[in-house]
Design a protein that fits this description.
By secondary structure, this protein is an alpha+beta fold. The protein folds into three domains: 106 residues, Rossmann fold; 112 residues, ATP-grasp fold, B domain (D-amino Acid Aminotransferase, Chain A, domain 1, 2-Layer Sandwich), CATH 3.30.470.20; 70 residues, ATP-grasp fold, A domain (Dna Ligase, domain 1), CATH 3.30.1490. The protein is 38% helix and 23% strand. A hairpin with a 5-residue loop joins strand 13 and strand 14. The protein is globular.
Length: 344
């Protein structure tokens, strides 16, 4: 039996999804027989320090914690493992993982650098291109450049990428701030860039790949990393797997097996493992990809801390592979305990 602290919430736009994921993880770990404390970490709880008498472990009670007081909670609880179940922001960009490394506390997520590279879509793209991994044509637009000369910036995007295109903030998850511009429409492109700049000073514009969207989860690390079954994602309204579609039950169909050939499925799994290891990931990640009409595969992004809600893709893929949600959490816990922390 282990002492476990599950961190959820955060201050990113995906806060509510993180709370749903974190509660599911905490309940599963408690069901496995572990002592589980669950904490809502947010700057809203700036002055929330642990009381003199620590509450008993209870996955249903969310302890108020802030990034500023987290070391005090860690000292009070003394967890064997921390589960950072935060989507976006400081929970997924490697900041929290770096703190845990410094405090020498095992944690169930990819390490700091892997999280940072996955979170920054521009740096992730550059890494894919350097390694020869197929990814959609793209360009990068800075907010300062856009504000100085909007029309010239739109000219640049049209020449570099063209239409249809997808516009995303450089460092957000769950398609927050992302838009699709399906046809040549300068006003729509301007609005899409403005929406992306609400969340980040840098925007990534990708050529939209027309085809099927798939995702592949990967467990473990290095030579032991293995891919779970491929899932095809089919939105029931529109053609974009946006935030609402992702997290509203019934808004998207998840096809296992997907409607692509077995050869393409195997190739997608191989690519997902390659990307997972390229970033130096462990625990569980999910790589999103597009498959065009010729079954060419293009990597879109890697999710370092994928969702664990009732409609999330990783638990669904694990179930098809014969891994229950509780067993999946146990695998992540055991790997975290067995993984050596960095030594200086």
């Amino acid at each position: 039996m282990a002492r476990v602290l599950v961190l959820m919430g955060g201050d990113a736009p995906e806060r509510e999804i993180s709370l749903r994921s974190g509660r599911a993880v905490a309940r599963a770990l408690a069901k496995n027989g572990h002592e589980v404390w669950a904490a809502d970490i947010s700057y809203q709880h700036e002055n929330s320090f642990p009381p003199e008498t620590l509450p008993s472990p209870n996955p249903e009670i969310l302890l108020p914690c802030s990034p500023l007081t987290l070391p005090y909670w860690l000292e009070a609880i003394r967890p064997d493992v921390v589960f950072p179940i935060l989507h976006g922001g400081y929970g997924e960009d490697g900041t929290l993982q770096a703190m845990l490394e410094l405090l020498r506390i095992p944690y169930a997520s990819p390490p700091p650098l892997a999280c940072q590279l996955a979170m920054n879509k521009v740096q992730f793209k550059r890494l894919l291109i350097a390694e020869g991994i197929p990814t959609p044509t793209h360009c990068v637009v800075e907010r300062n450049r856009f504000e100085r000369d909007c029309e010239a910036t739109i000219d640049y995007v049209e020449q570099a990428v063209g239409y249809p295109c997808v516009v995303k903030p450089s460092s957000q998850g769950s398609t927050i701030g992302a838009s699709v511009v399906n046809r040549a429409d300068r006003d729509a492109l301007r609005e899409a860039l403005e929406e992306a700049f609400r969340y980040d000073p840098e925007a990534l514009v990708e050529r939209k790949i027309v085809g099927k969207e798939i995702t592949v989860a990967v467990l473990g690390s290095g030579e032991s990393a293995r891919a779970l079954p491929v899932i095809e994602i089919v939105p029931k309204t529109g053609d974009f797997f946006d935030f609402t579609t992702k997290y509203t039950p019934g808004m998207a169909e998840h096809r296992i097996p997907p409607s692509i050939s077995e050869n393409a499925q195997k190739q997608a799994q191989e690519i997902a493992v390659r990307v997972h290891n390229l970033l130096g990931c462990r625990a569980v990640t999910r790589t999103d990809m597009m498959v065009d009409s010729d079954e060419n595969i293009f990597v879109l992004e890697l999710n370092a801390i994928p969702g664990m809600t009732e409609v999330s893709l990783v638990p669904e893929a694990a179930k098809v592979a014969g891994i229950s949600f509780e067993a999946l959490m146990e695998m992540l816990l055991e790997e975290a305990i067995q993984t050596p922390l960095r030594s200086w």
